[in-house]
Every structure is written in structure tokens, then in C-alpha cells.
Amino acid sequence: MVSRIPTHHAPAPTHPVPTGRGSDPAPAGAAAASPRPVVKRTARAIVLDGDQLVLIKRTKPGEAPYWITPGGGVEPEDAGVVAALHREVAEELGGSVAGVVPAFVDTVPHVTEDGRDGVKVQHFFVCRLVSMDPARRHGPEVEDPNGEYEIVRLPFTPEALRSVNVVPGRLREYLAGNVEGVRALLAPDLA
């Protein structure tokens, strides 16, 4: 026997309704906000070398150090996000990587230099280090560093990841909570 479910219309809420865009609620009865435009995309490498994670310790004058994954903006001349990743690894590590697999995406508000408001989408890929020669580093991070870009190796463990200020923080927590899963992304049977 099929029961008929009575239909009724819920009254309009009298409290603010979250829109999913930060913590600002939309007014009651407001239509869903249109998506924010993507105004910048970056490619970032979660570089594994055995049981270690290769990072860049970033030290700026007058600021506490922080650790970042190699990477940067997707440029118009890049064939795509993965091509940008390979270019950035060559520039910042003097290196090359293999087994590039998407692992994490971080979307943050961003305003371009010309004032356009939108979001920056950071694409993080896990990959294996094939080679690295810091003497071959080039690009703005080396030529005009505004502080230091030091290549460092960190044990790829939750404890080590939480012991330093890896940014963005959401990446640090994702990696620390998923060490085994991130390693499994490079398993030979995944290809």
C-alpha cells in the first residue's frame, strides 16, 4: 500500500539563511547568491621523496616563518594546471616530479591587482620527486626573494606536519589526517 504524503509549504524563515559564502547570512527569502568568479588558479605540489615531504620554508623579514608547498599561479603560457605545476617545481626546486595526482583543492577569497573580486582556487597535487638540484632554481622566488625560500624535508607524519606552520592551514590538517591516503594516491595500482 502506498501512502500519500501530505504536502504543505513551510513558512518563510524569519531568521537569516546561510548562503555558504563565509559567515555572512543572506536576508530571509533572498535567492541563492551566484557563484563567485575564479580570478586566479594555482598549481601546488605535495612532493613526496620516500618518507619525507619536500617543502619550502618561507621566511620574510619581521614575520614568523611558515612552510609552503612548491607551486604558484597558472600563467597564460601554461598548457594547463599540471603544466604549471611542472614549471613551478622546476623554478622553485630545480627539480622534476612524476606520478602527478590531484589530492586537494582550497578555495579562498581573492582580489586581483586590478581590483577584480572573486576566488583563488589552489589545486594541490601529490607527486614523487624524480630529481632536484637547488643550483638550477630560477624565477622570482630566487631572483627577488623578499626573504628566504629554503628547501626543507619534513617527515611525512601527522606529528611533523602539525609541528610547523604549513600554510594554508586547511592543507596542513588534511595532510596530517590523511598521511596513509595521500601516500596511497601514488600506489602503482591506482594508475
TrEMBL record:
Record family assignment: Belongs to the Nudix hydrolase family.
Biased composition (Low complexity): 8-36
Source organism, top-level taxon: Bacteria
InterPro entries referenced in this protein's UniProt entry, alphabetically: NUDIX_hydrolase-like_dom_sf (IPR015797), NUDIX_hydrolase_dom (IPR000086)
Region Disordered: start-end pairs: 1-36
One protein family per Pfam: NUDIX
Record-linked Gene3D superfamilies: Nucleoside Triphosphate Pyrophosphohydrolase (3.90.79.10)
PANTHER family in UniProt: ADP-RIBOSE PYROPHOSPHATASE, DIHYDRONEOPTERIN TRIPHOSPHATE DIPHOSPHATASE
Protein's UniProt name: 8-oxo-dGTP pyrophosphatase MutT (NUDIX family)
Domain annotation Nudix hydrolase: ranges: 38-179
